[in-house]
Structures are given as C-alpha cells and as structure tokens.
TrEMBL record:
ABC transporter domain residues: 8-238
Keyword Nucleotide-binding: yes
Keywords: ATP-binding, Cell inner membrane, Cell membrane, Membrane, Nucleotide-binding, Transport
Keyword flag Cell inner membrane: yes
Lineage: Bacteria, Pseudomonadati, Pseudomonadota, Betaproteobacteria, Burkholderiales
Protein known as: ABC transporter ATP-binding protein
Biological process annotations from GO: carbohydrate transport
Organism: Caballeronia mineralivorans PML1(12)
InterPro entries referenced in this protein's UniProt entry, alphabetically: AAA+_ATPase, ABC_transporter-like_ATP-bd, ABC_transporter-like_CS, ABC_transpr_MalK-like, ABC_transpr_MalK/UgpC-like, Mo/tungstate-bd_C_term_dom, NA-bd_OB-fold, OB_MalK-like
Database matches in Pfam families: ABC_tran (PF00005), OB_MalK (PF17912)
Any one GO cellular component localisation term in the record: ATP-binding cassette (ABC) transporter complex, substrate-binding subunit-containing
Matches recorded under PROSITE patterns: ABC_TRANSPORTER_1 (PS00211), ABC_TRANSPORTER_2 (PS50893)
GO molecular function, one term: ABC-type transporter activity
Length: 361
C-alpha cells in the first residue's frame, strides 16, 4: 500500500478567532512526500494552522491548495486528508479491527477492500495480535497505534498529526517516534506534524517550520535550523540547553573583525555575514553548548556552578563573570562544582545576531 503524494500550498493565509488574529499573511509550501514538522510553544498557532488545512477552522483570507486543487472552502471529507489527534478518540465498544474499519464501512467501501486495507495497516503497525481486543484492553501506545492505523486505512493524500504522542510516557514516545519515521519511509506520503517537543521535530522532520505568534520564524532541515538559526528566538528555543548568548560589539582592528565585551575578545573575520556589519555594531554572540570546550589548559577561566549527568554526556555550567555558560562534555570529562577550569569557544561554529532586533547578522 502506498499513499498518493500531494503537495500542500498555503498562500497569504489569515485566521481570526473572534477579534484576535491568530495567523496573518502566512505562506507555506509542503513538498510531495515530505515530513514537515510545525514546531513552536503553546499558543503559537501551529495547531490552528493544521486544523485549517484539515478544514476544521474557517480561514479569514488566503488560500489552501492540496494536490494542486483549491481546498480553501472544501469540506474536510473532500480534502483527501487523514487526521490523527492528540486524543485517541477510539470507540470503546468496538474492537481494534472494527475501529480501524469504521470509517471505511460508513463510506460504503467494498468488504474485500476493507479487509485489504485493515490487514496492511495492522501489519505495518504490528496490531495483528490485537485486532480482537477493545481499547480498554490496550496500553496507551497501542491505542495511539490504532488511531494512526485508522488514518492509514484512509490511504489519504496528506496525513496530519496534531501532537499525537504528547499523552504518552517518555519510553513510548521514543518507540512511536521510531515507528512514525519508518511508517513515513514505507508509505512515502506527505505528512504534516504538530509538536512543541523539539526532540520529536529534530528526529522526525525532513523539514521543520519554527513558529511564534502565528508567524513562521524559520523553515529548513533540522540541521540547518539548528546550526544557523534565523533569530534569537529560534536559537534559544532549539537545543537542550539552548544556545549560550553573550552581548558585545563588533570592532575592526588591524584587518580583523572582532567580537568584544568586557571579558571576551574573539576574531570573527571568517563569519559569513548576510550583510556587512557596522563599526561598533551592538550584537549578541551565540554558541551551542557542544561548541564550548572545557579543558584546564585553556586560558579563559570559569567556575563550575552545576554539573548535570545525562548518561553518555554531562552538561557543565560555568559562571563566567556573572554569565552562565553551558557546555556539553563527554561523561569522561572531569569537572567538579566550584572548580575553576579553562574553556574555549569554537569561533567557526558561532552565530551572531543584531542587538536589539535579534535577527541573524
């Protein structure tokens, strides 16, 4: 079973709920067969955007095309989509098999076709041994697999996922993330997935769109967005811990361009600026914790204020003249609380942002 791959094209979308504008002038292109993740904090408009694609929310302006067809005002049933909600929403009196087939039976799908689709979906999601059980006899992860299976049997053009794993515990989320990734590979379908969990976004997405206040802040592959954030919001929202930020100015000296504050002097001449910086321009230097290297031999010194063991690595927090700087180090690295140690910043892997606007320089 393979799904039809359809693109989703959103142009100048506006959504108002009462007197509040939730989304304004939003453009988004979802390519056929890609796994696009909408990522952002609660209230940023990502679920509202997903529901507008599904036809569950009326738009105030703009257009939504699915597979080249204008679906802005089409009924949900006519959009060729399948939606998986955060809640399982299974019928408690029906067994798994009948839950999977319910929509097909209502639509009058031939019995042989229903059997083919249910069998295939249950094989893909490892639901075969559970087909005769009712939802009360299933674990949370099994129930969510049934909810996903109910969408798969639709053989839709586009699959929409609205935070489907948020009700599960950490172990089940990890397992179902892996299953969803494999499912996308097998189906080759277009999938749009909403989450506030950056780990889900980074592991599932072929591309991700980071949202804030109804506006897409950045869209790109997880690696691109993580390494080259467009602004300070993206820089701090992604990563655990988030990017370290240090305020300073850009100064030219003897043919070099340097980032300077009261305690740091760093050559940033090789930085790929989007446009030429101004002399003495206020800016913020950002560096990921894994690019802060700790070694007692380094000249720049900080005091270890906290050590967080994370299994195969540790997060070491340094107090550097009142600024808290996080470093991700292998668990073999030695550092103890209150110890004074050396650290360095990998100048090839930094980000620079305008201050106070916060846009990437």
């Amino acid at each position: 079973m393979s799904a039809v791959m359809s693109n989703v094209s959103i142009r100048d979308l506006e959504i108002q709920l009462g007197s509040n504008t939730i989304i304004e002038s939003l453009d988004l292109e979802v390519e056929p067969g890609e796994f696009l993740v909408l990522l952002g904090p609660s209230g940023c408009g990502k679920s509202t955007l997903l529901h507008s694609i599904a036809g569950l929310i009326d738009v105030s302006g703009g257009s939504i095309e699915i597979g080249g067809q204008d679906m802005t005002w089409a009924d949900p049933k006519d959009r060729g989509i399948a939606l998986v909600f955060q809640s399982y929403a299974l019928y408690p009196t029906m067994n798994v098999e009948r839950n999977l087939s319910f929509g097909l039976r209502i639509a009058g799908t031939p019995k042989a076709e229903i059997e083919r689709r249910v069998t295939r979906a249950s094989e893909m999601l490892q639901l075969g041994p559970l087909l005769k059980r009712r939802p009360a006899q299933l674990s949370g992860g099994q129930r969510q697999r049934v909810a996903i299976g109910r969408a798969i049997v639709r053989e839709a053009d586009v699959f929409l996922f609205d935070e489907p794993l948020s009700n599960l515990d950490a172990k089940l989320r990890t397992e179902l993330r892996r299953e969803l990734k494999q499912l996308h590979k097998r189906l080759g379908a277009t999938m749009i997935y909403v989450t506030h969990d950056q780990v889900e976004a980074m592991t599932l997405a072929t591309r991700m769109a980071v949202m804030r206040g109804g506006v897409i802040q950045q869209i790109g592959t997880p690696a691109e967005v993580y390494a080259h954030p467009n602004n300070l919001f993206v820089a701090t929202f992604l990563g655990s811990p988030g990017m370290n930020l240090l305020k300073g100015t850009l100064q030219r000296e003897a043919g070099t361009l340097r980032f300077r504050n009261n305690h740091i002097d760093l050559d940033v001449s090789a930085y790929p600026f989007r446009q030429a910086p101004l002399e003495n321009q206020p800016c913020v230097l950002g560096v990921r914790p894994e690019d802060v290297l700790i070694d007692p031999s380094f000249q720049r010194r900080g005091t270890v204020s906290l050590v967080e063991p994370m299994g195969n690595h540790r997060v070491i927090w340094l107090d550097y003249h009142g600024a808290q700087i996080a470093s991700i180090a292998q668990d073999s690295a030695t550092a103890a609380v209150d110890e004074i140690t050396g650290f360095s910043i990998d100048s090839k892997r930094i980000s620079l942002f305008d201050e106070p606007a916060g846009d990437r320089l």
